[in-house]
Amino acid sequence: DQQVKQNSPSLSVQEGRISILNCDYTNSMFDYFLWYKKYPAEGPTFLISISSIKDKNEDGRFTVFLNKSAKHLSLHIVPSQPGDSAVYFCAAILPRTQGGSEKLVFGKGTKLTVNP
Amino acid sequence: KAGVTQTPRYLIKTRGQQVTLSCSPISGHRSVSWYQQTPGQGLQFLFEYFSETQRNKGNFPGRFSGRQFSNSRSEMNVSTLELGDSALYLCASSPSAGSLYNEQFFGPGTRLTVL
Predict the structure, then answer these.
(1) pLDDT surpasses 80 at A98
(2) Does residue B52 contact residue B69 with C-beta atoms inside 8 Å?
(3) Which residues 97-116 of chain A have a CB within 8 Å of chain B?
């Protein structure tokens, strides 16, 4: 059961335009969300995160929006640059429950290609 | 500052064997997490260690185990290998506990192939 879904396996945009990467989740208990990007042959790199008590977080060209009622978050990259071409993973954290563990659940990723 | 290092980078094993993967975190980082990446399942969280104690655990069978040493280096062991264990195993480190909420720094991974 995929609790975090990235329904678009790939996305292609022109340099300078906006890239919007989407992520849907099913478990309302998730309390924190993160985006990672991954270049080939490298480990993922943390990009930006957002707590479930917020609806927006911005860091430079990157903004994450969270819509809790829709169980949806999105990553906006403005303006997009060729160096942004990578696979982007959405992830969500289930907080620790009594006797249990925190859990980090990833989506399967969206490959972004930014064309010059 | 050196990044997270993982050894070996590539490994080929046969079904039924066991394997041990090693991870050296960034100097000063005390938390180490392990992940499995496969084409079918994507990135999945295995477990997290902090100060030699397993703090969090994903939904993997007991064949997957790990440990952390006093110098924060960590090892992951998979026993009785199955074909489905073929994957990229990633290690990540973080300066403090609660690392799942904090920025993690990933190594390049160990590519395990089970024949």
Answers:
(1) no
(2) yes
(3) 101-109
